[in-house]
Amino acid sequence: MSEQVRSAEQSEKPVKPFLYVVVCAAGVASGVSKLITAAQERDWEVGVFATPVAMDGFFDTAAVEAQTGRPIRSAWRRPGDPRPFPAPDAVVVAPATFNTVNKWAAGLADTLAVATLCEACGLDVPVAVLPCVADALASHPAYRESLTRLRGMGVRFGDPYAGAAGEDGGRPEFAWERALDLLEQR
Questions:
Q1: What's the pLDDT tens digit per position in 28-40?
Q2: How many domains, in total, are found in the chain?
Q3: What Cα–Cα distance (Å) separates residue 162 from each residue in 75, 152, 166, 172?
Q4: How far apart are the two ends of the chain, measured CA to CA in Å?
Q5: Would you place residue 161 in the very low, low, confident or very high pLDDT band (cuts 50, 70, 90)?
Q6: pTM of the prediction?
Q7: Could you tell me which residue ranges the Flavoprotein domain spans (predicted)?
Q8: Buried-most residue among 37, 141, 144, 179 (CB within 10 A)?
Q9: CATH of the domain at 132
Q10: What is the pLDDT of residues 75-98, one digit of tens each?
Q11: Shortest CA distance to 96 belongs to which of 126, 117, 77?
């Protein structure tokens, strides 16, 4: 291999490990910059995927693109378009919704975000998930079966977050950094 080819290949690889963050349409998605900051502080490069609905006002897309220095991926690229992200070293899904978890477990890759999750499991990439699902939906048999299936595939789950107001009327904080902690458990 020539020095020019070797040098070009090395320049394409990120120096830091690359983390895919998949954002779903839940109210807490507005805080995804906290996860990105925490990941960057732990020496990750970050690229964000979002479900199409999440792109519609659930978080500040311009701020996230500025923070990561990369475009948010929500649609498939066309044949011949370059890959905007390198292959992932790990994936975090936060917040993970009822819809996304069930589609992913069933292999229904109808969005780029879910297709990316299906592919990550096929590539044996570590995946951590912070669910954000209402209690009524979390009790649905399909959801419970989806969690069992995904856990059987090696996916790591944080505690569910329903976002219900406590007795004092305040909502608990979404534990963004917990996803990174899950990735570090080997």
A1: 999 999 999 999 9
A2: 1
A3: 28, 23, 11, 9
A4: 36
A5: confident
A6: 0.88
A7: 21-150
A8: 179
A9: 3.40.50.1950
A10: 999 999 999 999 999 999 999 999
A11: 117
